[in-house]
Amino acid sequence: MRNSARDQEAEKVLKANPNIKTVVGHSLGGSVALELQKNYKGLNTRTYGAPVWDPLGKDGKVERYRNWFDPVSMFDRSSETSFKKNPFESFSLFHDYWNLGHNNFSGNSH
After folding, report:
1. CA 23/CA 31 separation, integer angstroms
2. Alpha-helix runs per DSSP H in 2-108
3. pTM
4. How does DSSP classify residue 15?
């Protein structure tokens, strides 16, 4: 991921704007945000539906969010999980941001 076009563009933005303290991303953008956090100490991230491999929920305190049954983020057991009442509200069924941005979370319920 380090050499992807998205990662390179994000690094350019960070270098041009040193006051950025938090990067937010959904799905693949969440992966880019997490990669940037590894490379820039002190950078915070908030991800939604990111493809994270954490099947045992051992990442500790993180700011990651996902919808229940989201196939992209299904292995992120450290994320806060939201239940989507009507998956047919959007084209992507369970992998969308709208529900995450407008729903309450019940803690790390999986």
Report:
1. 11
2. 5-16, 28-39, 98-101
3. 0.77
4. H
